[in-house]
Amino acid sequence: MVQQQPLLEGRNVTKYFGGLAAVHHVDFAVYPGEIVGLVGPNGSGKTTLFNCLSRILPINEGEIYFKGKNITHAKPYQVAHMGLARTFQVIRVYRKMTVLQNMLISRQWRGEGILKMLRPSSKATHERARQLLDFLLLGHLMHEPAGHLSGGQRRLLEIGMALMPDPDIILLDEATSGINPTLIETIKDRIRQLNRQEGKTFLLIEHNIDFISDLCSRVYVLDFGEKLAEGTPEEIKNNPAVIEAYFGAE
Amino acid sequence: MDQLLQALVNGLLLGGFYGVMVLGFSVIWGVMGVINLAHGEFVMIGAYFAWVLNRSLGIDPFLSLIVIMPVMFFVGWLLQRVLINRIVERPHLIALLVTFGLSIALANLFKLFFTADPRTVPVSYNGSFELAGLTFPIVKTIVFGLSLVVMLALHIFLQYTRLGKSIRAAAQNKEAARIVGVEVGRVYAITFGICIALTAAAGAMVSTTIPVFPFMGPPFTLKAFTITALGGLGRIPGALLGGIILGVVETLVAIMVPGVGTNLGIATSFVLLVVILIVRPQGLLKGLRPMEVT
After folding, report:
1. Cβ contact, residue pair B181, A108, below 8 Å
2. Which of A34, A199, A207, B290 is deepest in the core (most CB within 10 A)?
C-alpha cells in the first residue's frame, strides 16, 4: 500500500474508568479506502475505543486525528459533520418513527440557522434516503415504524442512517451481532460495494472472524485495553498471543 | 343534568388551557430530562407581561402574544445557555434544586418590582354567549380556541420541520442524535426557548381570567405534574387529554362540594396524581415513560 496520510489516527489513546484503563496507550491508523477490523475478547476495550473516536467519551491521554485535524477535544456532532459516522453495538434507531424518517433525521442538522431548520427536508435528501433504503433492501419498508423491523433490518437501517450524511469513514460496532446468515451476507456485500464503488472507509468491530477475513485488509487486536497485535487477517489468526487471548494458554 | 353539562363545558374549556399550560413542562422534561419546578413562575411572568403591555400600551392580552412569545423564547434560550445547560443530563435532584431556587428567586423578584397586590387584565369582551342551552364565557372560549391553535402549531412543527425532527431525535436517543450530527446542546436551548414561550403564552391567556400576582406559579407547577402523569411526557394529544380530564374533574368536584373555595382545585389535582401513581405508577397513556414527542 502506498503510505498516505491516515484518514483516522489514534496516538497513545488512553481512557480510564476510575482506576481501570479501558483503553491503554493504543496507536492505530486507518487509511482512506481501507476496511480495517478491530477484534478482541469481550471487555477488551473495542467499544470504548469507538466511543472515544466518535467523541462520545473524552480520552485521558493521547490524541485523535481525522483527515489530518486534531479532533481530540471535538464534540460528537462536529466529527459527524466532518464525515465520521458510526453505528452502535446495541442498535439505536428511533423506533416510533418510520424507516424514512429515521433516515432523514440523520441529515437534519448541518449548523444551519433556525429559520432554515423550519423547512422540511429537501427533495434531494428524500431521494438519497430512498436510494439508500433500496440499496439496503429496505425500500419496501420505508413507511413502516422502525420498531416493526426485525433485528437484522434494524441493523441495516442503522447502517443506512450512518450513510445518509455521505461520510468518509463508517465505524460499525458488531454489525453482524444477532443477525441471520442471509442478512450477514447482505451486510458484507453492501460494505464491499460501498468500499469498492464509492471508496468508503470502514473500521469494523467484529467477533465474526469469517466476516473480518472476507472484508478486512488489516486487523487490530485489543486485549485488556492494550493493542495486542496488528496485521492481515491470516497473520492475526495464526498469532499465538491472539490465540492465547481468545482461548487461554494451553 | 343541565348543571352537569355546564360543568363539563366549563371543565373542557379549562382543560384546553391546561393542555397548553403543561406543554412546556412536559416537553422540557421529556426532551432534556429536567423537571422544571419554576414552570409556574413562567406562567406568572407571561401573565405579568400581558398586564404590563395592556396597562402601559393598551394592547389586548391575546394580541400581546405576538410580542410575548418571541421575547420569552429569547429569555428561555438565554436561561438555558446560562443556567439550565449546566444541569441537563445530571441527576434529577440537581435539576429539582436549581429550578426550585429559580422559582423562589423569580417570585420574589416580581414581588419586589410589582408588589404582592393582585392585578387584573381587563378585556372589553368579558361576557358570554349561549349555545344549545349552555353558557360559554367568551374569554374562556377564546383561550380554549387559542390553546388548540398553539398545540396544533407545535404538533406541525415537531412532525414536519427538520428542527422539530431533531428535537424528537434528541428526546428519544441523545447519543444517536449526536452521532448523526444533531447539535443536541443547540436543540436543548431552542427547545427550552420554545417551551418558555409556550408557558408564558399560557400565562398571558390566563391573565384574563384570574388575578395576577407573584406567587400564582406553584399551583400551575403542581397541576403540570398531574397532567403529565395523565397525558405523557411531550405528548401533545396527551397534554390536551390530561388537561381536559383534570379540568373536568376539578369542575365537577367544585359543584359537588360547594363552598370549599379555589384551593379545592389544587387538592383535586394532588388526589388525582396520588391515585394515578398508586393505580398505574407508569402513568396513564404511557405517562411517565421516556418520551416520544408527538
Report:
1. yes
2. A34
CB-based contact B181 A56, cutoff 8 Å? no
- Give the CATH number of domain A8-91+166-247: 3.40.50.300
Q: Do the Cβ atoms of B165 and A108 come within 8 Å? A: yes
Three cell numbers written together for B130? 349561549
Range of the domain at B92: 2-115+131-286
Residue A81 contacts B, CB cutoff 8 Å: yes
Residue B273 lies in a domain: yes
Q: How many CB pairs under 8 A join A and B?
A: 91
Domain containing residue B278: CATH number = 1.10.3470
Structural domain count of chain B: 1
Pairwise CA distance, residues B109 & B124, whole Å: 31
Q: Does B168 touch chain A (CB under 8 A)?
A: yes
- For chain B, the C-alpha Rg in angstroms (whole number) is 18
Question: What is this structure's pTM?
Answer: 0.82
Residue at B293 is within a domain? no
Chain B nearest-CA residue for A121: B162
Summarised one tens digit per residue, pLDDT across range A25-58 is: 999 999 999 999 999 888 889 999 999 999 999 9
Among B240, B162, B190, which residue's Cα sits nearest to residue B81? B190
Name residues whose C-beta falls within 8 Å of residue B143's C-beta, 6 or more positions apart in sequence: B13, B16, B17, B205, B206, B208, B209
Separation CA B167–CA B158 (nearest Å): 7
User: At how many degrees (to 10) do helices B2-32 and B138-160 cross?
Assistant: 30
**What is the torsion angle, in degrees rounded to the nearest 10, for the CA atoms of residue A167, residue A173, residue A174 and residue A176?**
-20
Per-residue pLDDT of B188-218, as tens digits, reads: 999 999 999 999 999 999 999 999 999 999 9
For residue B104, being part of any structural domain is answered with yes
Candidates B157, B161, B162: best to mutate against A (most CBs of A within 10 A) is B162
Report if residue B294 sits inside a domain: no
Residues in CB range of B65: below 8 A, 6 or more apart = B146, B201, B204, B205
- Pairwise CB contact (< 8 Å): B178 & A101: no
Quote the cell numbers at residue B162: 427538520
B165 touches chain A (CB under 8 A): yes
Residue B171's alpha-carbon distances to B34, B164, B176, in angstroms, are 12, 11, 10
> Which ipTM value was assigned to this complex?
0.74
Distance of CA B172 to the CA centre of its chain: 22
